[in-house]
Amino acid sequence: MKPTERARAIRKSILETFDGGKRGHVPSAFSLVEILVVLYDQILRFDASNPAWPERDRCILSKGHGCIALYAILADHGFFPKEELPTFCHYGSILGGHPKCGKVPGVEASTGSLGHGLSIALGQALILQQNESKSRVFTILGDGECNEGSIWEAAMAASKHKLDQLTAVIDYNHVQSYGTHEDVQPLEPFAAKWEAFGFAATEVDGHNEAQLKATFESLPLMPGKPTAIICHTTKGKGIPSLENNFAWHHKARVSDEEIDQLMKELADA
Fold it and tell me: Which string of b and e fits 26-61 if b means at least 16 CB within 10 Å?
């Protein structure tokens, strides 16, 4: 599916941020774009002028290496000035290679050590449940990090406590750092695994904004159960030379010519 102009604009912002730092995980950020666009534009309750607003919905980016996408959407919504984006990975910048809670407005948890986001979201959802809050907790997981046992420990606890305000959104781009899941550690039957751990699970096209919106608006999928939304995506979506290209998983010392070529491909795609 061809990206919308909104998604294209966020991808352009990601590239500009990447250009500022001359390093980062661009393909991992690109596969997140539509998920973040729909969540922050149409689903989440928040106040960018008051990121700690108690009644806000929480969104934790567990796959913290995709943080450039989160920075782009947070800046676009006014959590911090867009002028910060080109300082990415500079000395003294608030924007590091992984998102840090308390340093970046709008970041709910410091992540990047993979496998922790669902456990953090579980704790937040438990507190909200105990306080009888209507706020919701979303955590965006990478498919590769779902190899971690901590994910499934948290899933069992979420099911036990019937945390239907908790949603795990999985960026299922089918590629880990150095290979496909089929080669590294197969995940299928993936939805059935989540269901076996007590979640209501569904699968969507993670680049189809209408599908994403309809699914998010239908939450919880089943009262009394946490939800897992498996979003089928393409790593590097939006720029053909990045799509499923292992060499681009993380790049450093990128030249101006390479950035110019990526910008041209994005405009032409």
Answer: bbbbbbbbbbbbbbbeebbebebeebeeeebbbbbb
CB 236 within 8 A of CB 245: yes
pLDDT at 1: 66
- For residue range 200-243, what is the model confidence (pLDDT) as tens digits? 999 999 999 999 999 999 999 999 999 999 999 999 999 999 99
**Cα(44)–Cα(146) distance, integer angstroms:** 24
How many structural domains does the chain have? 1
pLDDT of res. 96: 96
Is the bond preceding residue 186 a cis peptide, omega within 30 degrees? no
Q: Is the pLDDT of residue 85 over 80?
A: yes
In which region does residue 32 sit, left (phi positive, over 0), alpha (psi from -120 to 50) or beta (all else)? alpha
Give the integer Cα–Cα distance in Å for 168 and 189: 17
Domain limits for position 241 = 5-268
Task: Tell me whether residue 205 is exposed, middle or buried, using C-beta atoms within 10 angstroms of its C-beta: 0 to 12, 13 to 18, 19 or more.
Answer: middle
Domain with residue 176: its CATH number is: 3.40.50.970
pLDDT at 259: 92
